[in-house]
Design a protein that fits this description.
about 350 residues; alpha/beta; D-Maltodextrin-Binding Protein, domain 2; 11 strands; about 40% helix; Tripartite tricarboxylate transporter substrate binding protein
């Protein structure tokens, strides 16, 4: 029987690196000891500061969430954690920067649109949310509140939610609603609400939620879906009123606001959320370590309290939990995009 040819004594640099990573990982050590390791990762990582890219400006909700994690994550990793704001295109510029990062020390804090419907809204978006981003952890969720002006012509101040929708149907396209822009969850969610409730207000996009609230206060809009913190501030001031919250039931973030189901809009469940993601090219052991740390930090009492104050109900999911949420929301919001023909150029 012929003998096997001798293996070459030369091993490629990449093969040597992969062998070293495998040998150094807690998973490999666990195999040798018979014990289970919770978060496999190369022992030599991280070797420099970790960067969190945020696609929105300093002081924005995603930025505040990223900075809430930067200190505890730095302590856990033993390296500085830097928040880098790359602003524009509804967060897609930042998401693209994360997708293209190749230093194994860059992750991103995303909103749901960046990880679900970005490519459906605009095929020219330079990254693919499914192929180019690796889910790490779903951090927080929040419903929106359907809000209307208190002093609205033709609508009594103490009108019930059901009667509000009657007034909206009667208003037809003479009514208008505002959002932070075409293709945002506020836009797609209101189009879904229009289909479910048989109302037909006209869409008016604004630069952000504060401008939407101001337009309602000025009488230019009859309704809008607003984040709870903004809506509640105006409600407490007696300037706006809540019609219903978009979660399936009442939300801990706004327990005083009835759900839209209580207003007769059945099977309506819409939330905004934020999450951490990594480039899909980041080695799986590093992804696993980051996911475990981020999830643990999110569920800590201190961080949960801070996120609640920022308007988020904390989740701190596994990568699989985030992947499932991405799939469900892509199907829901993608269906509305197709039904209404929504496109972002």
């Amino acid at each position: 029987m012929p003998s096997r040819p001798a293996l070459s004594g030369r091993v490629s640099r990449r093969a040597s690196l992969l062998i070293a990573l495998a040998a150094a990982s807690p998973w490999a050590l666990a195999q040798n000891t018979g014990k289970t390791a919770a978060a496999p990762a190369p022992l030599a990582w991280p070797t420099k500061p970790l960067k969190i890219i945020v696609g929105f400006p300093a002081g924005s909700s995603p930025d505040l969430t990223a900075r809430t994690f930067s200190e505890p994550l730095s302590k856990a990793l033993g390296q500085p954690v830097i928040v880098d704001n790359k602003v524009g295109a509804g967060g897609n510029i930042g998401a693209d920067a994360v997708a293209k990062a190749r230093d194994d020390h860059t992750i991103g804090l995303m909103i749901n649109g960046n990880m679900t419907i970005a490519k459906l809204l605009n095929p020219a978006v330079p990254y693919d949310p499914i192929k180019d981003l690796a889910p790490l952890s779903l951090i927080g969720t929040s419903p929106l509140i359907l809000t209307a002006p208190v002093n609205q012509p033709g609508v009594p101040a103490n009108v019930s939610a059901r009667d509000f929708f009657v007034a909206a149907r009667n208003g037809g396209d003479k009514w208008s609603y505002g959002t932070p822009g075409v293709g945002t969850v506020g836009h797609i969610g209101t189009e879904l609400l229009k289909a479910r409730s048989n109302i037909n207000p006209v869409h008016v996009p604004y630069p952000g939620y504060p401008q939407v609230a101001n337009a309602m206060l000025g009488g230019q809009l009859q309704m809008a879906l607003l984040p709870p913190a903004l809506a509640q501030a105006q409600m407490r001031a007696g300037k706006l009123r809540a019609i219903g919250v978009t979660s399936s039931g009442r939300s801990p973030l706004a327990p005083e606001v009835p759900s839209l189901a209580e207003a007769g809009i059945s099977n309506f469940n819409l939330e905004i959320w934020n999450a951490f993601a990594a480039p899909s090219t980041m080695p799986k052991p590093i992804q696993a370590k980051l996911a475990a740390l981020i999830s643990e930090i999110a569920r800590s009492e201190e961080v949960r309290g801070k996120l609640f104050q920022q308007g988020w109900q904390t989740v701190g999911s596994s990568p699989e939990g985030l992947a499932n949420r991405i799939k469900a929301d892509t199907n829901l919001l993608g269906g509305v995009i197709a039904m209404r023909g929504i496109k972002v150029e």
